[in-house]
Each structure stands twice: as C-alpha cells, then as structure tokens.
Amino acid sequence: MTNTRLVRSDRRALSATPAGFVTSAADREALRGLWATIDLAPIGICHFDINGHFLLVNQRLCDILGYSRKQLLDRTFQEISFTDDLPGCVAVLTRLVTGDIPTFNHVKRFVRADDSVVWTRISVSPVRDDKGELAFFTGIAEDVTEEHRTAVARGEAEERLRVALEASRTGTFRWDLRTNELAWDANLDALFGLAREQTVHTLDEFLALVHPDDRSRVAAACKLCARDGAGFDEEFRVTRADGAERWLCDKGQVFMDSGGRPLYMTGACIDVTGHRRIELDLRTAAQERERLLTLEQDARRHAEEATALRDEVLGIVAHDLRNPVHSILMSASAMLEPGVTSDQRRRHIGIIRRTARGMDRLIRDLLDVRRLEAGTLEVRMDIVDVTGLINETVEGFESEAQSRGLTLACDLGIGLPPVLGDHDRLVQVLSNLIGNALKFTPRGGHVGVHAHHVGSHVEISVTDDGPGIPPRTLARVFDRFWQADRRSPSGAGLGLAIARGIVDAHGGHIWVESIVDHGSAFRFTVPCVPPEHRFRAIDATHPAAPPPDADRAL
Asked: Is the pTM of this model over 0.70?
C-alpha cells in the first residue's frame, strides 16, 4: 500500500493523533506498516466520520461490500445500507456520539455494487481526540451471508419439521442417560393426554403412565438402552386422564461419548391406536373367514356324506322292499296254481301278511322320519302305566329271543309311577331298542329291560352283552341311516333316529353307554305324571320336534 492510496485517510487520521506524534521518518514508517496490516486483515475495517463518509477502508471491506476503495471513499455508509436497516443504525450512532453506549454490535445488510445484498456482523466504536471530542468512528465488518443463509435454512427446516410433527402428531423427546432426566415436547404431552404443566421430567414418571400390563416390558427395554446403548423400539398402551386407552409406538437412538458409554437417547413417538385396530379387525376378519371356510368345508363334507349315506340307504330300502314284494308275488302265484290245498293256501296267506307288515313298518319309519324333519310327528299325551307297557312289549319279543338262543329278562322297580306320554309311541321306542339288542347279541347272550324311578322321571334302559359300539361311532348312533355294520346292513337305520325324536317330544332324554366286547346300554327317560294329575286323563296332541341333524336327506 502506498501513501497515495491512503492520502485521504492519512490526513484525517493524523488529525486525531496527539500533536507531534508523527515527528520522524521512523514514526511515519511505523504508521505505514500499521496501515498495511489493517489492509491485509481478514476482516473488513474502516473509519468513517460523523456524517457517515468513509475515511479509511481496507481491502477486505471492499471485497465484502463489492466496491473498489475509491468508490467507497466517495460514499457514505448510509448510501450502501439496506433501506430497512438504516433507521436502526442511525439511532445507535447517535447514542455512540452522546456516549450512552461505548460500542455497537449488530447484524445488518448492505447493498453491493451489483445490487446483491450482503449480510454483515458489524462492531462500531467512537474514537475521540485529546479533548474528548468525536474524531471518527472505527468499524469492523464480517461477512455472515452464508451463516445467515444457513440459519435461515435451519429455521425453515425446523419450521417444516415442527409443522410435520404437529401434522403427524409426532412427539419427540431427549433422555439424559446420566441424570435420568427426560425432556419432551408439547406433542408428546398431547399423546399422553397431559396438560403442559403436567409434563414428565424423569423416566420413573414416564413409566408410571405406561399401562400396567406393558410397564415391565418397556422398563426392561429402557434398562437395556441405558446399559448397552441399544436402540429403543416398543409399542405399548397408555391410559389417558380421560380414561381412553391408546397404543403408542416409541422409537429412540442412543448416542455415545468418546469412550463408548451411553450419553443420551433421542427419539420420537406416534399414536398407532388406529393401526392396531385395523390389525385387530384384519385378524378378526381372517379368523372369521377361516371359521366360515371351515364351516363350509364341514357342511360340504357332511352333505357329501349325507348324499352317500342316502344313496346307500335308498339301496337298502329298495332291497328291503323288493324282497318282500318278490315274496308276495311268489306266494300269490303259488296260490293260483292248480291243486293247491287249503293248508298251503293258508301258509301262503300267512307269508303275504307277515311280509306286508314288514313293508308297512318300513314305510311307517320313512314317514316318521319325514314328519320328524318337518316337525309334524304327533304324540298323543296320556297317563301311561310304565310297568304294563314294558311287560306288554317284552312279551312280544319272547318268542324271537328264544329262537335266537337269548335270555330276555325284566328288572322293574317297585311301585313305578305313571308317566305322561303316548303309549303307542313309547312302545315303538322300546320295541326298537329291544329289537336291536336281540339282533346284535350273539347266541347265548342276555338282554335286559330295566325301569327305575329317578326324580321327576322314569328311566327305562335296554342292556345287552353283545359286541358293543366303538367310541368313534357312539356320537352317531342316533343319526338317520346309521348302521352298526355296513358290511351286512339290517334295516334302514331309521329306528334310533325316530326313537330320539319321540323321546324328545315327550320332554325326555335318550343316550347310549357302550364298551367294546362288553355290550351296550340304551337308556331314555319319560317324565312322571304330576301327583295332582294322576287321577284324571290327559288327552293332548304335541308335535315332535325335528331331530337336531335334520337335513332333509330324504
């Protein structure tokens, strides 16, 4: 730097120096060295007078403001100040002149020669002469444009983050792992249903807000974070002050010191109650679909089984009808043959009658099943003598038992009370049970009929020492068309289903007990006649309820 470049400032600056201060060449050389140092300084330096005219400027200030040295020395700082910032600067300079403040530090804008705006951090101080009068101002300027842009960008980013957090209802927190102190924002208070003055400050206060069923799990996860620096990722419930239960998802990251020790954890928390409900609804819907699918598959399987069973039984029924019809035709044809004697004719008539009765029983069974399915099977209720009914029925099977080599015996309680029921229908039930017992008990076996008074009912049972029924088929013995042995079917398999329908219509219950190779016991109950009604007849018709598994197979 030459004396020519600093001539203007040289004269004005010297006016502020003590008289005779610059008296030698050495002093002048020292002054030039000082100015050279100022000119090369990395910050902008200037002197300006009370009117704002620049007296001295260094190169760095020229670079900051975008003017040459000559342009600046011909201008005032007011001319290049950003308009909005100027009033404040003038007011502060006035206070500097009056001595109200010793110095002034401020961030202000200047308009560069190319009309761009530069942000500066300035420091202005007054310089006074020996008499204390203001000589000039010294100013230091630093370009903080990039710093300002960074601050603006940071502020905008923080504002965007704040808006995003509020819009998404995301709460943030910071947990000091050394002091156990918690700091969180208003959004987190809202998630926990807390007023701002109720905000928590420690981990223990936070855990107290967690649902009791989730608290131990969350506490264990926090302990792991504090001990090992593990990340935090938990979903838990909180019960708010208004009683509402909400699900929160909390995620946090632990930061370590240089020695690898956990310092603090920062994280965010959101309400996932809606997601949880959707997941629950989806799981419920999936379970319902699975249930319906299982029901549909079971229904299809049962329908297929019912269809197969129906076809099989129809074949049996057709066989059972075809054989009797064939017997009737053969006997009728034989009666028409010439030379048939009276004894032969009577024998053929007997065959026709017995065969017709068998066909009639089968047809009546089919009709009874149909009535049961439709709920129209009628039972005519009356007072029935149980002892007489059982003896009458057993007598009808004595000859068959003898022909099969079986013992048929009765064991009836003494003084059995009368029951309320349909005599003929009860005979039908008991006959079916005795007939089955005789049919499946091997020669030399025993079949027993028992009756006992049990509470408000009479329990009637038919026992045998036959082969018994396997456990896997016990639940199906009262199904329509069920056969104990499908390899050698006997009958249409309708008797037990009809028996159950009749017993149900009487308000009783029928069941079976069986042990393989030890026999079976079929039992049913019939309600006793109330004592006040035992001496007057009751004649009422009651439709029998359809069996629970009625599926219109016929």
From this structure: no
